[in-house]
Write a structure and sequence with these properties.
A seven-stranded mixed sheet has the order 5-2-1-6-7-8-11, sandwiched between helices. It has a four-stranded mixed sheet with strand order 4-3-10-9. The protein has 15 helices and eleven strands. It folds into two domains: 172 residues, Rossmann fold (3-Layer(aba) Sandwich); 154 residues, N-(1-d-carboxylethyl)-l-norvaline Dehydrogenase, domain 2, CATH 1.10.1040. The protein is of the alpha/beta class. The structure holds NADP nicotinamide-adenine-dinucleotide phosphate (NAP).
């Protein structure tokens, strides 16, 4: 029988992953906001990737959209795809509907979403997961994977019955042994999210400016030094190990383009989801990204001034403050 999957948070990641799983034969229920449901009802769900993958999926008996979590009752798998601040609320709602046999995987950035799910859903398997690629919501039900990478989650035999489906979807579901190391490695890369959001330009354009890269290098170097003190070794998610990336980021742009062509192999229109949040007037995930660096610093009786400044600038932007920073202004502001 086809696997039943409920996607909670039908946004960029939820609709893209849900579309790929539906195309691979799963029964998928997307749970999200009316505006997204309306777009998909009108235009269908259109999922594409940078390699030329393309599927147009109309809503049907096997691909449904709803605004409530009723459908989760008999799901084999729930994928939590909301922003981190919404996780606790989703978990409380899920607790009213779900049965213990349903596996739950958080496909969110940050370190603690799975722990929040476990706290509210003690009878279910709740695993931390990770999306290694970027998805752009192009509107009208169109979701595009703009960079390379697949899906990962904590190693657990509970995922075994679902692995063939993830394989068939083309996204896979890798299960590295040390998942905290993967989460920290992804978090180091996500330290670019506030810089991208403050720059106001697409990721490719931002990373092509040395002063923006210097800001990212400083935020990463600060976090890496704290991780080292804490004895945490982030995983290697990119061709270079994490502690080399700050050095690579600060080389002149002509050299960076030569050495880091993979890092720049991004859709020219792709931006961080933090930029999308500022654009939509929503709270960002800053507390769950740079905020984790501050928490680590505090646990070591230390400080992280670059990450602290980025948090303050994003908070200001969330409250209508300055956006569209030039690379040199931001570098000056961060004293790097
Ligand atoms: N986008 C990317 O390229 C990318 C890549 C890797 C990882 N991630 C991570 O993936 C997670 C999801 O990011 P995203 O960019 O896909 O976010 P998103 O586009 O904002 O999608 C989340 C959707 O869930 C909705 N939602 C919130 N609470 C809900 C609830 N209780 N029930 C149903 N729907 C609810 C949101 O609506 P409202 O806006 O009305 O709240 C929004 O439409 C984040 O942790 C992000 O860091 C994103």
């Amino acid at each position: 029988m086809n696997k039943k999957i409920a996607i909670i948070g039908a946004g960029s990641i939820g609709c893209y992953v849900g579309g790929r799983l539906a195309a691979a034969g799963a029964n998928v229920n997307l749970v999200g906001r009316a505006r997204i449901g309306e777009a998909i009802r009108q235009h269908g769900l259109h999922v594409t990737d940078y390699l030329g993958y393309e599927q147009q999926l109309p809503l049907s008996d096997t691909l449904t959209f709803s605004e409530s979590l009723d459908s989760t009752a008999d799901a084999d798998l729930v994928l939590v795809c909301v922003k981190s601040a919404a996780t606790a609320g989703v978990a409380q709602d899920l607790a009213k509907h779900i049965t213990p046999s349903t596996l739950i995987i958080s496909l969110q950035n940050g370190l603690n979403n799975a722990a929040v799910l476990r706290e509210h859903l003690p009878n279910n398997y709740c695993l931390a997961g990770m999306v290694q690629f970027n998805v752009i919501n192009r509107g009208d039900g169109k979701f595009h994977q703009g960079s390379e990478g697949g899906l990962e989650c904590e190693a657990d035999s509970a995922t075994a019955p679902l692995l063939p489906l993830f394989e068939a979807s083309g996204l896979g579901l890798e299960q590295p042994q040390d998942f905290l190391a993967v989460q920290w490695a992804k978090l180091l890369l996500n330290l670019n999210n506030p810089i991208n959001a403050l720059s106001g330009v697409p990721l490719k354009e931002e990373l092509s400016q040395r002063d923006f890269r210097r800001c990212l290098a400083a935020a990463q170097a600060e976090a890496l030094s704290l991780l080292n003190q804490a004895g945490i070794k982030p995983a290697k998610l990119t061709p270079l190990p994490p502690h080399w990336i700050p050095k690579l980021l600060t080389v002149p742009t002509w050299m960076f383009k030569l050495l880091a062509n993979k890092m720049l192999a991004i859709d020219p229109l792709a931006r961080s989801s933090m930029w999308e949040d500022l654009e939509a007037g929503r709270k960002t995930e800053i507390d769950y990204l740079n905020g984790e660096v501050i928490a680590l610093a505090e646990s070591l009786d230390s400080q992280a001034p670059v990450n602290q400044s980025l948090i303050e600038l994003i908070r200001d932007a969330e409250n209508g403050g300055r956006r569209g920073w030039s690379a040199s202004d931001l570098r000056q502001q961060l004293h790097v």
